[in-house]
Amino acid sequence: MQLRYLAVPSFRNLRDMAIEFASQFEPLPQACDQTGKPIRSHALIGQNGTGKSNLIEALITLFRDIDLDRDAAFDYTLEYAIRGHIVRIHADTAKQKRPFVWVDGDKVSQDYLIKNDPADKTDFRINCL
User: Fold this and answer.
1) Residue 86, Cβ neighbours under 10 Å: how many?
2) How far, CA to CA in Å, does 54 sit from each of 10, 101, 104?
3) Which pTM was predicted?
4) How many domains does the chain contain in total?
5) CB atoms < 10 A from the CB of 76, how many?
6) What distance in Å separates the CA atoms of residue 88 and residue 102, rounded to the nearest whole number?
7) Nearest-CA neighbor of 78 among 24, 22, 4?
8) Which of 6-15, 39-48, 56-65, 107-116 comes out lowest in average pLDDT?
9) Domain of 13?
10) Are strands 14-20 and 76-82 parallel, antiparallel or unpaired?
């Protein structure tokens, strides 16, 4: 799984946080090879009290709630790539307790994420909210 985007309006000391996770290094202008190299991991670096641990805890909480088929604990938008699919999850607790879920642009239930993908699910496209 590779995280692509995370937005959290409010969780502990995180306020209006939005992160786009790069998927490849941009080539340098003077580089002969103009293709970007894939990024396989990310690091969180920052001073104490800036929210590094809270960011990780937010990810743990939202994935735990999805895995246990629970209501969303807070508002968020998460997008990630997994096994050739793009998953977008949007929790807006003022509208409904369960997060809205899309896989490759198709709206699905939260329960769908717990089950295996069907063999015929191969389309790879992204739709906006």
Assistant:
1) 18
2) 11, 23, 29
3) 0.78
4) 1
5) 24
6) 5
7) 4
8) 107-116
9) 1-23+49-129
10) unpaired
